[in-house]
Amino acid sequence: MCLIDISEPLRAGVAGWPGDTPFSFTLNWTKEETGSVNVGKVIFSTHTGTHIDAPFHFDNEGQKVHELDLSLYVGPCRVIHLFDLPSIGAHDLAKYNLAGVERLIIRTDSWKDRSVFPTSFTYIRPDLGSYLQKQGIRLLGLDVPSVDLPDSKELLGHHSLHQHGVHILEGTVLYQVEEGDYELIALPLPIEGADGSLVRAVLRKI
Ligand SMILES: N[C@@H](CC(=O)c1ccccc1NC=O)C(=O)O
Ligand SMILES: [Zn+2]
Ligand SMILES: [Zn+2]
User: Fold this and answer.
1) Nearest to 12 by CA among 1, 29, 3, 25
2) If phi over 0 gives left and psi between -120 and 50 gives alpha, with beta otherwise, what is residue 159?
3) Which of 54, 93, 142, 151 has the smallest count of CB within 10 Å of its CB?
């Protein structure tokens, strides 16, 4: 079984949204202290590293993490490469036959240095949501920290996807991933009420 890990390693200093909660893992109790076990403590923002957005992240009426359909995050997926584009809209996907594809992951390679949060990267144009819905796509994954640029307040990309039933997976690590068909597993944690969740995301070639 050959799994390709497309998850960002979680460690102190992992690049996060400017001003957001820094990731930390510490041992809350050591084996010496308890006499039996090490016990860890993790502090993280829900938008750290490789993660999914629940609609509640940008819509107060939207689904929260525990309400999401898990089948979105497990199953066949198509990976395509779209390099050197400032943004991606319907026009950029016209050359692909996406018939039967429910999960689409786009490798942009536009986040060059994963050790720092990028000021700019390939983002999603507002006409993409309806195009993906017409193709039957329910999940869009990207190798950038957000489908909208960091200074966006309207979050047109997020809303366009959400309005058309397309769920969002962000921050995947795809430098080694070729175009093709895979099985994706990227399950959120069952955090009640949450706006997003870290995932361990893997691909398996099919
Ligand atoms: N929309 C971004 C996250 C985001 O906007 C954000 C994440 C953490 C802290 C602040 C954020 N945005 C605005 O203040 C995302 O989808 O991950
Ligand atoms: Zn997010
Ligand atoms: Zn997002």
Assistant:
1) 25
2) alpha
3) 151
CA separation for the pair 199, 75 (Å, rounded): 15
Length of the chain: 206
195 ligand 1 Cβ < 6 A? no
51 labelled binding-site residue:
yes
Q: What sign results for the dihedral spanned by CA atoms 26, 27, 29, 33?
A: negative
Joined tokens for residue 161: 């996807």
At 170-203, the pLDDT tens digits run 999 999 999 999 999 999 999 999 999 999 999 9
Average pLDDT over residues 34-57: 98
Write the ipTM: 0.96
By most ligand atoms within 8 Å of CB, the mutation choice from 8, 14, 17 for ligand 1 is 17
List the domains of the chain with CATH numbers. Answer: 3-205 (3.50.30.50)
Ligand 3 midpoint to CA 80 (Å): 20
Pairing of strands 3-5, 196-205: antiparallel
Of residues 57, 91, 159, 167, which has the active-site annotation? 57
Work out the angle at residue 186's Cα, subtended by the Cα atoms of residues 184 and 190, and round it to the nearest 5 degrees: 150
Residue among 8, 142, 146 whose CB has most ligand 1 atoms within 8 A, to mutate:
146
Q: Confirm if 167 and 142 have CB atoms less than 8 A apart.
A: no
